[in-house]
Amino acid sequence: MADVILSVKNLKKYFEPHQGFAESIIGGGQKKKIKAVDDVSFDIKRGEIFGLIGESGSGKTTTGKLAMKLLEPTSGQIIFNGEDVTNLDKEKLKDYRRKVQMIFQDPYASMNPRFKIRDVLEEPLIIHKIKASVEERNTMIVRALEEVKLTPPDDFMGRWPHMLSGGQRQRVATARTLILNPMMLVADEPVSMIDLSTRAEVLHMMKEVQKKLGLSYLYITHDLSTARYFTDRIAVMYLGRIVEIGLADDIIDNPLHPYTQALIEAVPEPESGKVKIIKELPIYGEIPSPADIPNGCRFHTRCPYAIEACKTEPEPELMLDGEEHYHACRRAHEVKEEKQKKSRVERS
Amino acid sequence: MNSLLKIENLQMYYFTSKGAVRAIDGINLELFPGESIGLVGESGCGKTSLGTSILRMPTPPGRYVEGKILVDGVDVIPLPEKEVRKSIRWQKISMVFQGAMNCLTPVYTIGHQMMETLVEHQDMPRSDAEELMREYLGYVGLPPEILQRYPHELSGGMKQRAVIATALFLKPQIIILDEPTTALDVIVQAQIINLLKKLKQQFDLSFLFITHDLALEAEISDRICVMYAGKIVELGTNEQIYGIQRPSHPYTERLLAATPRLFKKVEQLHFIPGTPPDLIAPPKGCRFSPRCNKAFDRCFEEEPPLIEIEPGHKVACWLFH
Fold it and tell me: What is the pLDDT of residues A270-308, one digit of tens each?
């Protein structure tokens, strides 16, 4: 499969809970493992922007860290560019990290405040021992800055991070990844800390860079509205597992899993006439702890459409339902009918 | 109708070593009983400064320069601190701070911290206080066991509910909510917004809801006040801002265009180029003019006043003169 750049197969990451010294001797109260990522599989195609959506505690960030090889998986396989990268030695790991780069959430914490922008951008070249003269390096830095539209580059090279706005910092962060000619970027909530007025600007720039250089992105976010604009495909995660996956437009216009539906209904829209209305969401309570994942379908405790089978039967696997659209809900079609009936009653 | 809160020509500057930062520069605003006003704008527009100024606690080196803040007809600016504490703060106006869930101390139980508020602002026997706390936890949908828990044992949504309960305690009429849902997930955010709407009806509260998210503001605020660089640029009803007529000030227009819409597929999101001005030396004329795509000569020379263009709808822009 030449058109797949990153393939993740049955990936699991269980964290061992902290156990005190006394507890380990007495062996009292075996604590439960925290199942942050619990059997996740997906493929990212070459030149694709793949969105991983979920609430906090859904395991989306852990999945991103596993893909970045910042964490070792408990089990499962990661295949990058046709090569198994699940277990890599130090040399190969360094090479992998050059090809797969990361943009972090907090642009204020991800840059050394004592480095000028030029130094920030030169650092990856030093770490990865890129053999180049000072002039060659400068050309690379200038090119990277031009790529992210921080022009004139000479003007920005001498500045300190504190002189830049959040949006400009995320541009520098992007330039820092581009300088090593990566094949893929992992971006974990890259715009959540930036002002709304400039959020679009950064996403737009990232998309242009992606198109121009033919990169692939893994975009991790909780924000469905930017995901629709930014991504080609979306995977919705809940408690460590993907519950729905499909084309971005399809997921938002035609969500099949009740969790995705609740997520979509929760997004506020800038329209008038909603102040007096209290719209109850089709979901109960808050996300359970990943140390205590419910039996059966893991969403059944919060699902208003759950029936006995959802509690007792084994969890449904992702099933194909429409073009490139998979979901893990055994009642998807019944729920859809129920909803349509309800809205018909409301209208009449 | 008499207003609960009336702000008259308020100026509050931060006196830094580089000069006075004109964070609030001549604001006039009235809040009526049972009404929610939304304060929106980019970071640095002065919306949070306005919130803390109303509570008579501008962050140092902030100082009042001019104007009045009338709470039930009484100007709170010249009042002694003791008086503010006894009769204004938390009694008439309370505030849910930005990142409120992180302002709980990790070393004390929720009950202890809620009790502190009561003891600080009102003499009340402990047993009565305890009963009151249980009652208010009920209103925000939390079980009374929470009182014995520590903040780290609760989720973000639960902490935010506890903070809201604390803000309600002393029966204030006005609650200032500064980005109360920014750190929360969408589902929890929607749940908290629903809770706030219910509480508003139940206790006939007035809100000052501060956020940068215009979409969220549409859910909760009766009137919207758009701020830019320490000034109000537009003030209108929910319908006037979000309705079919669409906003009038170019800044509001562009802010709305920059707000991502879930159900509208767009090829390209809009954004506002540039950054808000330096408030030590704000630009001459309209403060938005350097970033405005509709600006003409007059905009760079003269500052536009806030004028009424239709009943209840005020705009500060030369396009409407």
Answer: 888 888 888 888 999 888 989 899 999 999 999 999 999
Q: How crowded is residue B67: how many other Cβ atoms within 10 Å of its Cβ?
A: 18
- pTM for this model (two decimals): 0.90
* Whole-angstrom distance, CA of residue B141 vs CA of residue B152: 19
DSSP state, residue A59: S
Tell me the CATH number at B211.
3.40.50.300
Q: A106, A164, A197: best mutation site toward chain B, by most B Cβ within 10 Å?
A: A197
Using CA atoms, how far apart are residues B165 and B172, in angstroms rounded to an integer?
12
User: Residue B126: inside a domain, yes or no?
Assistant: no
Q: Are strands A216-221 and A184-188 parallel, antiparallel or unpaired?
A: parallel
Instruction: Please tell me whether the peptide bond between A152 and the residue prior to it is cis, using omega within 30 degrees of 0.
Output: yes
Domain of B241, in residue numbers: 5-92+172-320
pLDDT in tens, A253-275: 999 999 999 999 999 988 888 88
Chain B residues in contact with A249 by the CB 8 A cut-off are: 265
- The CATH class for the domain spanning A4-268+279-347 reads alpha beta
In a domain, B146, yes or no: no
Q: Is B133 within a domain?
A: no
Please enumerate residues of A whose Cβ is less than 8 A from a Cβ of B.
55-56, 165, 195-201, 203-204, 222-226, 228-229, 249, 252-253, 262-275, 278-281, 283, 286-287
If you count residue pairs, one on A and one on B, with CB atoms under 8 Å apart, how many are there? 131
Residue of A nearest to B186 (CA): A266
Contacts with A283 from chain B: Cβ below 8 Å = 187
Distance in Å, alpha carbon of B186 to nearest chain A alpha carbon: 6
DSSP symbols for B194-260: HHHHHHHHHHT-EEEEEES-HHHHHHH-SEEEEEETTEEEEEEEHHHHHSTT---SHHHHHHHHHS-
| Sequential DSSP letters for B2-70 | --SEEEEEEEEEEEETTEEEEEEEEEEEEE-TT-EEEEE-STTSSHHHHHHHHTT-PPTTEEEEEEEEE
- Is B144 a domain residue? no
Q: Which amino acid is at A287?
A: I
Q: In what order do the strands lie in the sheet with B206-211?
A: B93-96, B174-178, B206-211, B36-40, B223-228, B231-237, B313-315, B307-310
Domain ranges of chain A: 4-268+279-347
How many domains does one find in chain B?
Answer: 1
Which residue of B212, B215, B258 is in closest CB contact with A200?
A: B258
- Between chains, do B261 and A269 touch, taking CB under 8 Å as contact? yes
CB contact under 8 A, B260 and A229: yes
Smallest Cβ distance to B258: which of A197, A273, A281? A197
Quickly state the pLDDT bin for A108 (edges 50, 70, 90): confident
